[in-house]
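Appendix C: a fully annotated inverse folding record. The material below is reproduced so that readers can follow the format used throughout the book. The structure is listed first as tokens, followed by the designed sequence.
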């Protein structure tokens, strides 16, 4: 999928993961520190893209909607969550045999 996306070979993209353009303002609300499976991780913005940073591991987040994204290195789907005031308070992660919430800590 990464090669198909890079070269815009739309016929080779997985139809379940069509990339969506998300506004810079929305992406800014997702940056910060989270706790995922008792492990501190960060989501940082570089240019117009967000990246997951976990120690030495860094991977770009690819959005399929304003709230859902994935990374190419994993089969899971991430959905950002908000509190009653509309502030991002974490994300929900779902993979084959795992479902968990990761709270935002800053």
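Designed amino acids, in order:
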């Amino acid at each position: 999928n990464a090669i198909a996306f890079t070269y815009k070979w739309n016929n080779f993209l997985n139809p379940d993961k069509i990339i969506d353009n998300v506004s810079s303002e929305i992406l800014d609300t997702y940056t910060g520190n989270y706790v995922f499976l008792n492990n501190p991780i960060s989501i940082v913005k570089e240019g117009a893209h967000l990246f997951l940073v976990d120690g030495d591991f860094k991977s770009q987040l690819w959005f399929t909607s304003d709230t859902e994204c994935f990374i190419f290195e994993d089969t899971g789907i991430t959905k950002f969550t908000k509190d009653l005031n509309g502030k991002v308070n974490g994300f929900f992660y779902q993979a084959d045999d795992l479902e968990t919430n990761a709270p935002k800590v800053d």
